[in-house]
Amino acid sequence: MRFTEHEMTVAVDTVARRLHAATRPPWRRGDAVAAYDGLERMKKWRLKVTAGEVVLPVLTALPERPTVGAKPEFTEAELTAAAQTAGRDVMEHRKPGAWDAMPAKRRDRVLATAVELTRVAVDGMPVRQDPDALIVPDHL
What percent of the chain has pLDDT over 90? Predict the structure, then answer.
């Protein structure tokens, strides 16, 4: 599916925030959002790179959904098929035969993780705007 640059950026940032909150030690006090905002730029960048490596190939493999005024919605089967296609392509690009050589349990965990993170990314995206109804602000 084709997403705008802004939608992809928001999606990757949302997943990076979720990854930071998930990897934070449970005994840490304070808000996870404030902790993420207080991170150094390099640490945020590393989280975003990790999130992007997982989520961006799956997002581009999703079927086209021209939704305007709402967030796109995908079924579990569509998300799983996109994650499988993207995972196979990425693994085969790095090392031919790596996807088929991976044990079935590990492959299932990789797919489940990619599907869940993609769901988080799509849920975090802003409402889609009509690209044909370009609105130019008065101050420009």
Answer: 46
